[in-house]
Design a protein that fits this description.
It is built from 12 helices and 13 strands. It binds flavin mononucleotide (FMN).
Length: about 375
């Protein structure tokens, strides 16, 4: 009965979103819409009554979706990816929208204005976004100060990156910048992500190189924290680069990988829009297949030893389930929610329950990596 009600609720809200709200939003500048929606989210998160109302409109819960990953209890496997809540102002409303966890940031050592606008575009035909923010955020000190005494309603990841300006020009300065942000969040939230894959910085992605990554992780190992650590990888890495990163990760305190960040590859066959900007990383359906391939590659290469968070182009429960079957324990999204509406989170969770039951599975853990092992 509850499931029938929620299915119909999601159909109605999704219809209203796609036929009315999305048309209004998509007629305006994407960054303006994002900033306005962030303000709405902050307001809704401030009061018990607005949180309860939001929950009744969007959330879906079922014990089959619960799991322990890297020592953290998740009510469901669908998280908000880094980049939507850069300054960690939405933590009170995320659970009510239906997410099982959230990742704030990416947060850098110093405050960072990011690249000049425009820096966000929609690829309407391809169902993706082009992102050229360049790590805009208020910096680790201000954000940590605001969040330090806060009780979070859902598990919280902190994505750490390197300040996007000339102060991080040398490897030493870059590592010091990561370490500064990492230390500021050592006791805040539930897990860390080290973002070594921002496609939009003036310094490029220097910590993809094994020697540099080894030096960075050696410095991170020295910082006291109980929180598990994930490495967020670019969608544009070759298998050789991925394998080299795994070798380095094995020597350090790394618990898992996030596959993937954005892609810069303009040759991608899923790009259907014409005249897109030559710079910036692409999200959504453009990156979906590459993300799935990388999840499978890492799962097989490490025999499932690492927790994988699958990210990129999730627009449905089937998309999320494919990432889980490839080897992901958790998934994250942004772009699907923007194109389909916030009811998508509940839809995915409900759909995952149906897919697990169809396949005779009783937990997400049983489905993780099932494409690569006999059950
Ligand atoms: C507007 C926007 C900003 C982003 N900023 C960040 C960021 O600061 N750090 C990061 O690790 N990933 C960032 N990403 C990448 C996302 O976390 C995610 O990896 C990517 O968008 C693929 O997921 P999706 O197809 O569900 O959007 C950003 C993505 C978008 C759309």
């Amino acid at each position: 009965m509850k499931d029938i009600f929620i299915r119909n609720r999601n159909i109605v809200i999704g219809f209203i979103y796609r036929t009315i709200l999305k048309r209004i939003f998509f007629a305006a500048d994407p960054e303006d819409v994002h900033d306005a929606m962030t303000q709405v989210g902050v307001f809704l998160g401030n009061y018990a009554i607005t949180r309860a109302l939001t929950k009744s409109l969007f959330a879906y819960a079922d014990p089959i979706l619960e799991q322990n990953v890297a020592g953290i209890r998740f009510a469901n496997p669908v998280g908000l990816a880094a980049g939507f809540d850069k300054d960690g102002v939405l933590t009170d409303i995320i659970g009510a929208v239906g997410f099982g966890f959230t990742e704030i940031g990416s947060i850098t050592g110093n405050a960072c204005k990011g690249n000049t606008r425009p820096r966000l575009w929609r690829m309407k035909k391809s169902k993706g976004l082009i992102v050229y923010y360049g790590l805009k955020n208020s910096g680790c000190a201000a954000i940590a100060h605001r969040l330090t005494q806060k009780q979070f309603r859902t598990p919280l990841g902190t994505s750490i990156a390197m300040t996007n300006d000339s102060t991080t020009a040398t490897q030493e300065a870059g590592i010091a910048d990561y370490a500064k942000a990492f230390s500021a969040f050592a006791t805040i939230g539930d897990y860390f992500t080290i973002n070594i894959s921002c496609p939009n910085t003036c310094m490029g992605e220097p910590f993809v190189e094994p020697g540099a990554l080894d030096a960075l992780l050696t410095r991170i190992d020295a910082i006291q924290t109980k929180k598990p650590i994930f490495l967020k990888l670019s969608a544009d890495l070759t298998d050789v680069q991925i394998d080299a990163i795994i070798v380095v990760a094995k020597q350090h305190r790394v618990h898992g990988f996030i596959c993937t960040n954005l892609t810069k590859n303009r040759e991608n066959k899923h790009i259907k829009d014409k005249n897109i900007p030559a710079y910036g990383g692409m999200s959504g359906k453009v990156v979906r297949d590459r993300s799935n391939i990388m999840i499978g590659h890492i799962y097989k290469k490490t025999n499932g030893a690492y927790c994988i968070i699958g990210c990129g182009g999730i627009f449905s429960a089937h998309d999320a389930y494919e990432k889980i079957k490839q080897g992901a324990s958790l998934v994250q999204l942004i772009t699907g929610m923007i194109f389909e509406g916030p009811q998508l989170i509940g839809e995915i969770n409900q759909g995952l329950k149906t897919l697990l039951m169809r396949d005779g599975l009783t937990t997400i853990t049983e489905a993780t990596g099932v494409n690569h092992r006999a059950i």
